[in-house]
Fold this protein.
Amino acid sequence: MYGGILCYNTYMKKYSIGIDLGGTKILTALIDKNNGEVAGFVKKKTKKEKGPENIVRKMLDSITEVMAETGAGLSDISSIGIAAAGQIDRNNGVIIGAPNLECYDLNLRQIVQSEFDIPVFLGNDVEAAAIGEMKFGAAKGVKDFVCVFVGTGVGACIVKDGKVIRGATGTAGEIGHIIVDLNGRPCACGAHGCLEAYASRSAIEKRIEGALKKGRHSVILDYLTDGKSITSNMIRKSIEREDELVTHCVDEASAYLSGGLASIINFINPELIVLGGGLIEAVDYFYRKTIKNARLKSLPVPAVKIEFKKAALGDFSGVIGAAYLEEC
């Protein structure tokens, strides 16, 4: 790629478009299928509060924009892969239920295929991230691993013998909805006491915001100007300044997440756990504390053997993996 325009040789490369449809952002990228490289990308805020129609329109616009940015035409693109946070009907290309997107029974395949006349494949967001990391990232060459991403929610994907384990209904890996407190906090899924209600970035934000409303002081207020929302980088900066409130909220989330990871280690016994998401990337304190405590809470033998790695592809794990959903 040069100056945002694809450089064509006599041999025409084939590309796929990968889309990571998350609770806070829509990331759309043109992916070179030969090597997994990102030829160009567009990022938009999801703004789920405006409804599914707005989300779909933004996604369709982002496809058009990334094609315009890179100079790619429809004839250059073999498929469109969409990785969405939630429960997915892969056969029919439908989002069955995505609480963090506020989308239910949404037939994305039908909508996108009718717009672009290109084959469309749909998968779970962490499933796509796991595929990306397995092909080109932290899990390359590893046959048995679990990928866990911490963001608006907490999601996971199980890979066994190099294959994604989807389960009887295609919903395997929903670690964010294991119950950690029978009478606990409400979760976006409708249940109470789910892990993601305690260990997600959203959970940390809610705890901090609740404390601030009660009059607690925090240096994070220095960054919350002009109505800005709490971000992972704000959390990192506050911890670096040894803020008591933010550190407490992050420690609490880490304690719950480490318990969830220990459950994975004991139950599935993978070679590797890949951890990703904005909070993991931005807040090394959170990552280090979590993996240390996950080992301490696990059974002794698997605790010694388990390896942890951060996702190597960063923000692009999902879009790269989504581009290969047609193969998986």
